[in-house]
């Protein structure tokens, strides 16, 4: 049966499906099909689907395709009678519920549904501290899936808070109880990585488990990944190994301000994904920048002036030693009422060149 669908290359399928899910236009009544390296993802509204994927940095086409009807797959919504708000990281499902009874009901439906989920975690705190981690409540565990849950690449059993997340052809082992990771930034990470050329020198100042640095290394760059969280750095090293780029990734545990002297003037590209306080590290970024350097600066600001404070912070630190040109400024996502998570792509050029 021909149904409205979004066609996209397989490697961009995850980000496309996530964007369509966030726009609530996925058609759960039909199967996804694969033909000639492209996925055909069924949607309920072609126009809304086109809007949902318009900002993705990949080749998508809204079309129709002969897709089979999905047979007998029960979703959490089928069990509950409403669509719960959930987020998937690997085989962990994350919910955010204040009511313990509602959380337990949703978690039970997730485990009982036919979609793969090994554990359900409820957010028990906001992101906190220098290491940007949060507390979690393990609400439900699929005992059968847990008994079989072994990380094949490392040969280790996985805890309920640990998973292997796959994104744009790479995989990242991580423990949500110990590190910060957001699957919602997959499209943004891919946008940045797609700009990287072979032989670039890229330094991620707040690298986490390596979701910027490791794909960058896969494109032929030399990557330095720095993070204050020693556990995240351990995972970054492991993820470099499992993605075959261990020789191209140098992972360093510590404050990036403490390692700046070792990489003074080294970087062709810098990633500053610490949006609440990146402005405190702009002077360090200027120290790290080479003769010409692209800076990906993430910020959270009020919607009335989302880009101005970041531009001013960069210019204040870089000028007059560098000329500063803003190449891209865009909204990554809404963060809170009237607050936006934004990114500035800024090129620094040594003024005396």
**Total number of helices:** 11
Q: Which runs of at least 5 residues are low in confidence (pLDDT < 50)? A: none
CATH architecture annotation of the largest domain? 3-Layer(aba) Sandwich
Quaternary structure = single chain
Structurally, how many domains make up the residues? 3
Strand ordering within the main sheet: 15-14-13-16-17-19-18
Record field, number of beta strands: 19
Please report the distance between the alpha carbons of the first and last residues. 61 Å
Following the backbone from N to C, one meets helices and strands in this order, namely EHEEHEHEEHEEHEEEEHEHEHEHEHEHEE
Mean pLDDT value? 91
* Helix content class: 25-40%
The backbone outline, from C-alpha atoms, is globular
The radius of gyration is 21 Å
The CATH superfamily of the largest domain turns out to be: Vaccinia Virus protein VP39
CATH topology of the largest domain: Rossmann fold
How would you sum up the major sheet?
7 strands, mixed
Classify the beta-strand content into a percent band: 25-35%
Helix/strand class:
alpha/beta
Please describe what this structure looks like:
The chain is of the alpha/beta class and 353 residues long. The protein folds into 3 domains: 2-66, Alpha-Beta Plaits (2-Layer Sandwich); 76-148, GMP Synthetase, Chain A, domain 3 (2-Layer Sandwich); 184-350, Rossmann fold (3-Layer(aba) Sandwich). 26% of the residues lie in helices and 34% in strands. The chain has helices at residues 13-22, 46-53, 76-80, 100-112, 143-148, 186-193, 213-218, 230-242, 256-259, 282-288, 308-318, and strands at residues 2-9, 33-35, 38-42, 60-66, 87-89, 92-95, 119-123, 136-141, 150-151, 156-157, 162-167, 170-175, 201-204, 222-227, 249-253, 267-272, 289-302, 322-336, 339-350. The strands form 5 sheets. Strands 15-14-13-16-17-19-18 form a 7-stranded mixed beta sheet. The chain has a 4-stranded antiparallel beta sheet with strand order 2-3-1-4, covered by helices on one side. A 4-stranded mixed beta sheet has the order 5-6-7-8. The longest helix is centred in the first third of the chain and has 13 residues, at 100-112. 41% of the residues are buried. GO terms for molecular function: tRNA methyltransferase activity. Keywords: Cytoplasm, Methyltransferase, S-adenosyl-L-methionine, Transferase, tRNA processing. InterPro entries: MeTrfase_TRM5/TYW2, SAM-dependent_MTases_sf, TRM5-TYW2-like_MTfase, Trm5a/b_N.
């Amino acid at each position: 049966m021909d149904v409205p669908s979004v066609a996209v290359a397989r490697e961009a399928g995850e980000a496309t499906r996530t964007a369509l899910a966030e726009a609530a236009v996925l058609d759960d009544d039909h199967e996804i099909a694969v033909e000639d390296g492209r996925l055909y993802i069924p949607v309920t509204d072609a126009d809304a689907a086109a809007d949902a994927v318009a900002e993705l940095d990949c080749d998508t086409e809204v079309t129709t395709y002969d897709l089979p009807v999905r047979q007998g797959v029960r979703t959490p919504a089928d069990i509950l009678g409403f669509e719960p708000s959930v987020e998937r990281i690997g085989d962990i499902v994350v919910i955010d519920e204040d009511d313990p009874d509602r959380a337990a009901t949703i978690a039970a439906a997730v485990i009982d549904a036919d979609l793969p989920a090994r554990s359900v975690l409820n957010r028990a705190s906001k992101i906190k501290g220098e290491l940007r981690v949060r507390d979690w409540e393990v609400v439900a565990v699929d005992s059968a899936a847990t008994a079989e849950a072994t990380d094949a690449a490392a040969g280790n059993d996985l805890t309920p808070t640990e998973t292997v997340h796959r994104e744009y052809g790479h995989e990242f082992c991580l423990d949500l109880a110990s590190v910060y990771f957001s699957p919602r930034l997959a499209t943004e990470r891919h946008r940045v990585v797609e700009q990287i050329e072979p032989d670039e020198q890229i330094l991620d100042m707040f690298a986490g488990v390596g979701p910027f640095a490791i794909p960058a290394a896969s494109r032929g760059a030399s990557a330095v990944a720095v993070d204050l969280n020693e556990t995240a750095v351990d995972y970054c090293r492991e993820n470099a190994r499992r993605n075959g780029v261990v020789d191209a990734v140098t992972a360093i545990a510590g404050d990036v301000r403490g390692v700046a002297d070792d990489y003074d003037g080294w970087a062709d590209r810098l990633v500053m994904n610490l949006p609440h306080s990146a402005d405190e590290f702009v002077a360090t970024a200027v120290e790290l920048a080479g003769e010409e350097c692209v800076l990906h600066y993430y910020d959270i600001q009020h919607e009335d002036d989302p880009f101005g404070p970041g531009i001013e912070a960069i210019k204040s630190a870089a000028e007059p030693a560098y000329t500063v040109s803003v190449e891209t400024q865009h909204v990554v996502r809404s963060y809170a009422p009237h607050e936006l998570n934004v990114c500035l792509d800024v090129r620094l050029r040594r003024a005396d060149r």
